[in-house]
Model the fold of this input.
Amino acid sequence: MKKLIGLKKTKTAVFISGTGSNLKNLIKFSNTKKSPISVNLIISNTKKAKGLRYSNKYNIKKKIINFNNNMIAEKKILDFLIKKKIMFICLAGFMKILSKNFIKKFKGKILNIHPSLLPKYKGLNVHKRVIKNKEKISGCTVHYVSTQLDSGKIIMQKKVKIFKNDTAISLAKKILKKEHELYPAAIRKILN
Ligand code: GAR
Done:
């Protein structure tokens, strides 16, 4: 639809805390014609996040925000979002919990990717718990961020089969591959 009526891509910020493979994937996606988003800002809560290297590689502005004080941190983030005219946020391995106040300000405009078939396995150490419980299937979910952790409306999911010899590490790898298909698909579903 956007393409047909010639609208510009939605300016997006990606929030990370670690490796940033989803960030890299979203940047690559955003550089394609069919993408409804452009990645214009990378936010990290730590300077140690490996994904920050994609800032230089793809020439995208980055901001490292210290979360010792959540209120101050979120105020700084909001200022950057306004300055860069960001209208959409993708959390991609961002390991801080945003406040209700922040989420309400961006209601319906923050997505998260989680490495389980929500509502199962919210929170941390998902793959370890999945393997321990001898699940036969897991996967990943893209959902809207609501004020409850990992509980917002589900947009799309992808399933992954678990085999007897799978470990938390092998499962994480398999799911991450699916995440890279899922996140762009979910964004297209809601923004196209
Ligand atoms: C991904 O598996 C993502 O689903 C997960 O962290 C990983 C980040 O990988 N997110 C969460 O667990 C959020 N609760 P990446 O840094 O390579 O994109």
Remarks:
- The CA atoms of residues 66 and 72 lie 9 Å apart.
- The first strand starts at residue 10 and ends at 16.
